[in-house]
Design brief:
heterodimer, A: mainly alpha, Growth Hormone, Chain: A, 2 domains, 16 helices, B: alpha+beta, Immunoglobulin-like, three-stranded antiparallel beta sheet, 2 helices, 51% strand
Chain lengths: 409, 125
């Protein structure tokens, strides 16, 4: 679902040149199409997070997938800029529904000891979605951009039907403290808690707040690097654009390895009796990432740079799955949709601001300097995570488990 | 109501799938009558010459205006030029045209993604 969604999401930007010709759009209008989607998707995560905690999650995710496919068809049928704009807003609404739903569902489908690994595998979908873009480009080039949107919509409808058939798991049973009960069981005090107190409660959970903020620093750097890496390679290593783009794909390969390894390692440490194992993996990855990437950006030899770059890329995504699993470990099952919504808003903000901030610093001191200035933030996040996050895990987990046992059986 | 919900959902998805396939087939059938392919580029100083192969895939004579744009990855135009204002193409005929675009070295090295040829019928150009 994530892979299909990501492919749908980025298809628009890959056909920008064709849209520009068809509709005579200005650069500002093209940019506003992406901005409309991002704004609606980010804002929509909050209400959907609340809904996810109160209703049947598989239904929300399935309707989300169906509606985003309708929005894809609407994009393909658009005959004006306003039509394109509205369809992208529709896609944003639909997309914001499934992130909280899928996070909450996965944490209830799999037991605690597999949580980090499963979330890592899930996140690989975001990279796989990019692999579908060349197909979209091929279709658009040969049969027009409308055909690409029409065909991509088909995959969304298929996914929607598959998601509809998924079993709605019992909330909290995968946490191992409760026996499976009837689906009509009464819900906890958290399920109908008003939005503001619920978000406040989530943010008062120390390990959640620390993991969100420190991981956002890693997301901030990784997003900026994703945008600027090609330019860096062209500017400082004299690679042609084609070779630089190919070299940047190392980042995608490293990202996939990091997502899977990070998840597995987090689960393994917890299984070996290290309750804060997920935090330790994430903190170590963020610190090692700085150690690998500082020389990667500083060296002049291209071969050495590419090796360090690929290894560093692994560490960029390594913290994501263990920290997502950690948040599920310490957040009550009836609050996980809202916790995922907070994560969506924070990470979207970090990802949106990063290219701009790096670009502005680059204008003053050059791109190499800008990357070297921003990179240590990720390491500082890692240090903060190790210093404060590790000790917060156990108390937070006990508090969650106590609230889980209070749930009516 | 409990039964209506899944019926509505499945109906929406099946209708959507049918529409996806139908619209894709329609678009493929409406493939542009004029096919444009960038066959060669050469660069001297700040001028890049882009050669475009223009092919009429239909059974009727056509007249088109051909334009080439140099675009970055975000789809922004770095430069654009008209390769031919009025190009007459016989049925199933082909012709090569050239456009000259001015790009700074930095634009060419760091920003340029690809050259995009486009065409319009002579009456619209």
């Amino acid at each position: 679902m994530l892979a299909v969604d990501q492919a749908d999401r980025y298809l628009l930007s890959s056909v920008f040149p064709l849209l520009k010709d068809d509709f005579g759009l200005s650069d500002g209008q093209l940019g506003s199409l992406s901005a409309a989607f991002l704004l609606v998707a980010t804002a929509g995560a909050v209400p959907f997070g609340i809904l996810v905690d109160r209703t049947i999650r598989t239904r929300i995710a399935a309707w989300g997938a169906a509606l985003w496919s309708v929005a894809m068809l609407a994009t393909g049928l658009a005959t004006s800029y306003s039509g394109l704009f509205l369809s992208r807003m529709g896609l944003g609404v639909a997309e914001s529904s499934y992130t909280p739903a899928s996070f909450s569902l996965l944490t209830d489908y799999y037991p605690v000891e597999q949580r980090s690994r499963v979330l890592g595998i899930y996140q690989v979908g975001s990279v796989l979605g990019f692999l579908g873009l060349p197909l979209g480009g091929f279709i658009a080039t040969h049969w027009g951009w409308r055909a690409a949107f029409d065909l991509y919509a088909l995959s969304g409808f298929v996914v929607a039907l598959l998601v509809w058939r998924l079993r709605e798991p019992q909330r909290g049973v995968a946490d191992g403290l409760r026996a499976s009960v009837a689906p009509t069981m009464p819900r906890s005090q958290f399920s109908n808690m008003p939005a503001l107190p619920a978000f406040r409660y989530v943010l008062r959970t120390t390990s959640v707040t620390i993991s969100l903020v420190t991981n956002a620093l890693a997301v901030f750097f990784a997003s900026g690097l994703g945008i600027w890496a090609t330019t860096f390679l062209v500017r400082y290593h004299d690679l042609s654009l084609t070779k630089a783009t190919l070299a940047t794909s190392l980042l995608a390969v490293g990202a996939i390895v990091g997502m899977i390894w990070g998840g597995r390692l987090g689960d393994r440490l917890v299984a070996r009796g290290r309750p804060a194992g997920r935090v330790e993996v994430a903190a170590a990855a963020q610190m090692v990432g700085v150690v690998l990437l500082v020389p990667a950006f500083a060296v002049h030899g291209t071969a050495a740079m590419l090796v360090l770059f690929a290894l560093g890329a692994v560490t960029l995504t390594m913290p994501n799955a263990p920290l997502a699993a950690l948040r599920a470990d310490v957040i009550h099952p009836d609050l996980r949709g809202r916790a995922a919504a907070l994560q969506s808003v924070l990470y979207a903000g970090a990802a949106a601001a990063s290219p701009l901030v790096i670009g502005l610093i680059s204008d003053s001191i050059g791109l190499r300097g800008a990357l070297l200035v921003v990179l240590p933030m990720m390491g500082i996040g890692g240090i903060a995570l190790a210093a404060f996050g590790r000790h917060a895990v156990e108390p937070d987990r006990h508090r969650m488990q106590a609230s889980l046992l209070e749930m009516p059986q | 109501m409990k039964r209506l919900h899944p019926v509505l959902f499945v109906a929406l998805c099946l209708a959507g799938m049918a529409a996806s396939i139908g619209l894709t087939v329609r678009e493929v059938a409406r493939t542009a009558p004029i096919a444009l392919t960038v066959t060669h580029t050469s660069r001297t100083a700040q001028t890049t010459v882009v050669t475009v192969d223009v092919r009429n895939t239909t059974d009727i004579n056509r007249c088109v205006s051909v334009r080439v744009a140099a675009r970055d990855r975000a789809g922004h135009d770095l430069a654009a030029a008209t390769a031919s204002l009025r190009l007459a193409l016989p049925a199933h005929g082909r012709h090569s045209v050239q456009a000259r675009l001015t790009l700074t070295q930095r634009e060419y090295d760091e920003k340029l993604d690809a050259f995009y040829p486009s065409q319009r019928p002579c009456s619209e150009a």
